[in-house]
Specification:
Length: 331
């Protein structure tokens, strides 16, 4: 039975934007949690393809990115019988409701959004979509009335904006939206990339989860470390190779590597080789499953279609409530 029918479970909702190859930051910060949480929560997980439109300009590329992300999620174990898994653009209510919430959102609130300010500071193209990104995201969340929104730390502000918009709407028109809570597991709040900054495609510092071994090797061997000589003891607490390794290792493996760091005579290159092996081994079963799934895209399309039907049932109900409250239903 689909979890959508069990009223006692708390509801989670989250989305990932198809903008590039899935990397450890996406996996540890979001996708892995989403897969784990589907057992305990009533779960809505979606592909935020409308959000990608702010940056991905090539139609063919976007199409491919959407399919890739669907394959990634299903390969990683997202189960369409446990989670409502769908594509944002399949649910027209997201775009429709964005207009309504645009009209209660102060422009000054969006001017404070990190992503927008960052784009302005870097002299990037700032289209209206980038400016309005937090409102579309607020709708993504509010329309499904979730209890929790599991996201990485970088998305915290967006969830706060969603809370503010929901509060303002509710005060003006009556209680429709549930005020959502961000859920940010502390240990993976920020995953650091190969250059020491937050792992992000836009920084070119990612470690891909489904890359062929050669690519993975290049990315992992390229992790920046400090210049402590091989012979000297090293501090595992200050090294990103160790940190990344510890996400995948059990306690005794972590202890073993800690001792190697502390005793000296063990170089970062050796640690990187261990990390490479661990990451490759960890994703091996998922890689196989992904390969299988990629031969059956009809199945993937069907999953998304069925997910969209379930999502639409909820979204259209919220839309009807909003339309009624704001005066778009004539009696
Ligand atoms: N902005 C999110 C990101 O870049 C993706 C996203 C869009 C999202 N809509 C959402 C996440 C709603 C959680 C809930 O990662």
């Amino acid at each position: 039975m689909s979890s959508i029918n069990s009223p006692k479970k708390k509801r989670i909702l989250s989305g990932v934007k198809p903008t590039g190859k899935a990397h450890l930051g996406n996996y540890l910060g979001a996708m892995r949690n989403h897969v784990q949480m589907q057992d305990e929560y009533e779960s809505f997980i979606f592909i935020a393809d409308l959000h990608s439109r702010t940056t991905v300009k090539n139609a063919k590329e976007l199409q491919q990115l959407i399919i890739d992300l669907a394959l990634d999620y299903l390969a990683l174990g997202l189960d369409p019988d446990k989670s409502v898994f769908f594509r944002q653009s399949d649910i027209h209510e997201h775009a429709e409701l964005t207009w309504i919430l645009n009209c209660v959102t102060p422009k000054s609130m969006l001017e404070l959004a990190h992503a927008y300010k960052d784009a302005v500071a870097k002299g990037k193209e700032v289209n209206v979509g980038i400016f309005d990104y937090p409102v579309l995201m607020a709708v993504d969340i509010l329309i499904y009335k979730p209890d929790l929104v599991p996201v990485g730390k970088d998305q915290k502000q967006h969830v706060e904006i969603a809370r503010d918009i929901a509060g303002k709407f509710n005060r003006t028109y009556g209680e429709i939206f549930k005020i959502p809570e961000p859920y940010i597991p502390e240990e993976v709040a920020v995953v650091i990339g190969t250059d020491g900054q937050k792992m992000s495609k836009s920084y070119g510092n990612i470690i891909e989860i489904f890359a062929p071994e050669k690519t993975l090797k290049k990315q992992i061997m390229g992790i920046v470390t400090d210049s402590t000589p091989i012979d000297s003891p090293k501090d595992p607490g200050k090294d990103n190779v160790f940190k990344l390794y510890s996400y995948f290792a059990n306690d005794s493996e972590k202890k073993e590597l800690t001792e190697k760091y502390r005793s000296g005579g063990f170089g970062y290159g050796d640690a990187k080789k261990m990390l490479l092996e661990k990451v490759f081994e960890h994703f091996e079963p998922y890689r196989k499953k992904r390969e299988e799934l990629s031969k059956n895209l009809d199945y993937v399309r069907e999953v998304l279609q069925k997910g969209a039907e379930k999502a639409r049932a909820v979204a259209s109900k919220t839309k009807a409530e909003v339309w009624e409250k704001v005066g778009l239903v004539i009696k």
